[in-house]
Design goal:
Length: 200
Amino acid sequence: MKKVMFIGAHPDDIELSCGGLMKKLKDSGVEIFPVICTWGLYGGIVSERIKEQEESFGLLSIKEYVNFNWRDTEVAVNGENVKSLEEIIAEQNPDLIFTHYPDDTHQDHRAVAEMVKSICYRKNKSLIYFDSNSSIGFVPDYFEEINWFEKEGLLRNFKSQIDRSNILVKAGAKNRLYGIQSGKDFAEGYKIGRLIGGIL
Ligand SMILES: [Zn+2]
C-alpha cells in the first residue's frame, strides 16, 4: 500500500473516525491524501476550522490535501460533484479509499458516501467505510488497534468542536468499545465496501 485517500464531508470527520489509523499509516511510510468536501460553515467559524484542520494535518506531516469548499449541509449528489471527486481520485490514484458509511443521518455524509461508492465500483477502486457518529447500523468487520493517546492529541486540535460536539468523549467511548470487541485496549472499526487485494 503506497497511497491512501480519506474522503470526509466536514473538517474533523476523518480524524474522528480514522485518526488512529492515519497516524499508523503515516508512521509506516504510507502516503495519505485527504479530501474534505466542505469547511463546515454551520459547525463553527470557517477561519477557525481551516486553522484547526491544517494544524491536524501538520501533526500528521500531511502537506497536501483538497477541500472542495462545497456548501455545508447542502452537499448534493450531482454530475458536477461526481466529476470533482472522480478527477481527484484519478489524479491521485490511491491504492485504497476510506469514506463515510452510506447509511447515515447526516445528509452530507450520505451524499459523499453515495458518490464515492459509485466511483469506486466504476473505477475498480478498493473502498472501506468509516464509522461517523451519525452512522446507522454500523457493524465493523475490520478493526484496527490504535494508540488512543496519540489520537486524542490529534483531536485536541479541533478546539471549536470539543465543547460544541463533545468529540473527545464520543471518539474515546467508541474506540474503547471497538477495542473491547476486538480484544485490544482501543481500536477503530471499519466496514469493507470492496477490497481488491489486501489492506497493507
Ligand atoms: Zn461530518
